Amino acid sequence: MPVVLLVIIGIFLLIPIIFIVTHLRPLTEEEVMSLAVKRRRRSIRAYFLFDNQEYTVDKEFKKRMNPKGAFYKINEDLFEFPAIAAALLKYKKHEWIIIAFEKDKKVNLIWVNKGVDRSCVSSYLSIWEITEIAKRGNFTSVLKFHNHPNPDPNYYSCEAPSDKDIESARELARVLNANGINLLEFICERGKHYKYLLSPSDAFLPLTEFLKAIEKANGRSRLGNLALHLERIF
Prior knowledge:
Layout: H1 3-22, H2 29-47, H3 59-64, E1 70-77, H4 81-89, E2 96-103, E3 106-114, H5 127-136, E4 141-147, H6 163-178, E5 182-189, E6 192-199, H7 207-217, H8 222-233
Parallel strand pairs: 4-5
Antiparallel strand pairs: 1-3, 2-3, 2-4, 5-6
Helix pairs in contact: 2-7, 2-8
């Protein structure tokens, strides 16, 4: 075997050994924080995991949705609800809005209203009314959906939020998050949902809980330290 090849093999074998030896130490405070943030983000993504399949819904319920605005008590899994909302808004020729209230991974209450025309929709509930409803019901999250009627799906895509959508979403997120409530916003088109905002409150799956768990495990054993480093880096 050529010497050069042996050297290359030796280097490749040496790299993981060096990595292991240099990562048997406990995590620094900065590294603990980095891992805690990573774990929290992963947990938030897992909590807000949604079914991307298209759903069918009760046609009679869909017909009865009050265009002037109404509350409806329901009991749907959070995992399924975005697909349900998209199905409710499918084929609507005007813009509609659905505001859903969630806790314990269940959607128990929704508000629905129709927009004034085909290109504009806003909630008949104010930001403060949405916030108060969420607080009174001890809800964890607010999910907001609206559709973009597409004049010709063969040529146009209406999956992206407008600048106005983003601006209003940020304002609602600011108020809800300050009150310990998460906000998610979606565009619905042709029976599919597209999330464009996820703004979790600091009170949701608080970072301190992840920090405590990591600090408890950090420094207990060399192999445990290595596992924490591997999780943090990869």
